[in-house]
Design goal:
Elements: E1 3-6, E2 11-14, E3 22-28, H1 44-62, E4 66-72, H2 78-90, E5 98-100, H3 105-108, E6 114-118, E7 130-134, E8 137-139, H4 176-183, E9 191-193, H5 195-215, H6 225-236, H7 241-252, H8 259-273
Parallel strand pairs: 3-4, 3-6, 4-5, 6-7, 8-9
Antiparallel strand pairs: 1-2
């Protein structure tokens, strides 16, 4: 059973209502701003809304549901449409079934079970289905960051996401660090994107991928039942991805969990997280004597 908090009522609701096994999800992209440095108008909030829709779909599939996702957008020029496709691809957001300027109920096959929207926008009359409101994304540009210029108090849909100041010896910035950073807070909570925060997310990804690659060299073990139950319960109860990330950080340092079980746990939960945690498997030196 998958439950989310309907922001219009404040109550947890089951989606889709039992016994139906098909989830119809409508993700509403906010109007694109004109203040970004690349001219696309695509800012961090435009990434977070479809990202939460992606996590919702992945969680539903993990629970054995079929999912149809429709992304509604403002009228897009061809350049902006291509830019949106590229940005969603590099963030690991699965392509929706349909992208269009209106609510394509025909593509959903019926009324939406859930609408994913930006919390400070009005996507219109959404009489059907529950509503998930995604918190804003702010950007700050500390003096030590080499970020793109912008107003630190302005909503992120009007300002570009800053690039973080990477050490020349570090690997190139990983776009999935943005995904990790945006997933690290409950979906309705505002997120502040800074260069330092992105750098920290990038280091976490590198550390986890190295660990997963090392654990993969050990005999496989099943995901411990308590970890499986705890993580699935967190995801099924209002998409608590932040709790799952905290659980992985704890598991990584536990000596009582075999390496093979750690590998399977990270690989299994990455089906929802979409962080490509097994990317380095097979690319490291063998361990042991």
């Amino acid at each position: 059973m998958l439950r989310i908090t309907d922001t219009r009522t404040g109550h947890l609701v089951e989606i889709p209502a039992a016994p139906r096994r098909l989830l119809r999800s409508c993700v509403h992209l906010p109007a694109l701003g004109a203040g970004t440095d690349d001219g696309t108008g695509i800012g961090p909030l435009h990434l977070r809304v479809p990202l939460i829709g992606d996590v919702l779909a992945r969680t539903a599939e993990l629970n054995g549901l079929q999912v149809v996702t429709v992304l509604t957008t403002p009228e897009l020029t061809p350049d902006r449409a291509r830019a949106l496709d590229r940005v969603m691809a590099v963030l690991g957001i699965h392509p929706p079934t349909v992208i269009g300027p209106h609510r394509p109920e025909a593509a959903l096959g019926g009324p939406a079970d859930v609408h994913v929207t930006a919390g400070d926008t009005d996507p219109g009359d959404l009489a059907d289905g529950a509503r998930i409101e995604v918190g804003r994304v702010d950007t700050t540009v500390p003096e030590q960051d080499t970020a793109a210029p912008g107003d630190s108090t302005a909503p992120a849909d009007d300002t570009p996401a800053p690039a973080y100041a990477a050490d020349p010896a570090d690997d190139p910035p990983d776009p999935l660090a943005v995904r990790l950073l945006l997933l690290g807070r409950p979906y309705g909570t505002p997120v502040t994107v800074t260069g330092a925060a992105l750098a920290g997310a990038g280091r976490t990804l590198r550390d986890w991928r190295r660990s997963v690659a090392d654990w993969a060299q050990q005999p496989s073990r099943p995901v411990p039942a308590d970890l499986l139950g705890q993580s699935h319960a967190a995801l099924a109860e209002d998409l608590d991805v932040a709790a799952v990330l905290a659980l992985l950080a704890e598991v990584a340092g536990r000596s009582d969990v075999p390496a093979g079980a750690k590998f399977e746990t990270f690989a299994h939960l990455d089906r929802v997280l979409g962080l490509d945690l097994a990317r380095d498997v097979g690319h490291q030196r063998p361990t042991g004597p």
